């Protein structure tokens, strides 16, 4: 696990004492039967990768594999997506072209973006995939409360068991800054495999240009892979995965939205070794 960060020493106590409503957190924690729901959501075939279990994210010991991570995620995230979390997430949803029949949200977490997708496209089949059954249990709870039917599944974003060419749109929000670059590239290749020809991929995350210039920012929050994410270039990664019409736009300086399409005439993606990924 990582060394003590500024987050541990300063921000975590500030969040716990002033910014998080402890009573609300306790209520949410008690409203979910974690053991039952996680058991139902869990896929016994899944093996957690080392890059996921060996690090803390956001200062929560044990990463995302506990109820505390799932319950505190939304109350904390509202403060890290200025100027307004819903506005930022909706910018991704609004970038979707046409009316997709099937939408997949990879690394969906507690499902905040997934719920917005289902609200925007009520007649679409929407699926959320995440590695943490706790995050999925929280997402499921939120969807039930909102009366939305969404298919929640535990899975690896870089190696889902879904059929090739089965999705019209794949979305990925706030996942890539939490992945080693070689895994982020595999996720893009998997998204390419899952999309129908002409299908669209949309990625919302931290602005790589801004983060690259502000290394001090990266040391504040406990984000083990954000430095390598900041040095990368999503447009280049999308190009490598054979996407076309690739473009990344800044959103409020600190966020970016990347989008691209799978070509109508599909080129075979090269095996992993060709990219130095295995
Ligand atoms: C920062 S959260 C983002 C959650 C959500 N997409 C959002 O916008 O709030 C990152 C999520 O990615 C999940 N995750 C990390 N690595 C993953 C992987 N390889 N496959 C699937 N999910 C993963 C984590 O469990 C966590 O829920």
Strand content: 15-25%
Order of helices and strands: HHHHHHEHEHEEHEHHHHEE
CATH architecture assignment name? 3-Layer(aba) Sandwich
Poorly predicted runs are none
Q: What's the gyration radius in Å?
A: 18 Å
Mean pLDDT: 91
The computed structural class is alpha/beta
- Name the shape in a single word: globular
Question: How many domains would you count in the coordinates?
Answer: 1
Write down the CATH topology. Answer: Rossmann fold
Cα distance, first to last residue? 25 Å
Total number of strands: 7
The CATH superfamily is identified as Vaccinia Virus protein VP39
Which hetero ligands occur in this complex? Answer: S-adenosylmethionine
Helix content class: 40-55%
Oligomer: single chain
- Helices, by number, come to 13
Give, in spatial order, the strands making up the sheet with the most strands: 3-2-1-4-5-7-6
Main beta sheet: strand number and arrangement? 7 strands, mixed
Per CATH, the class reads Alpha Beta
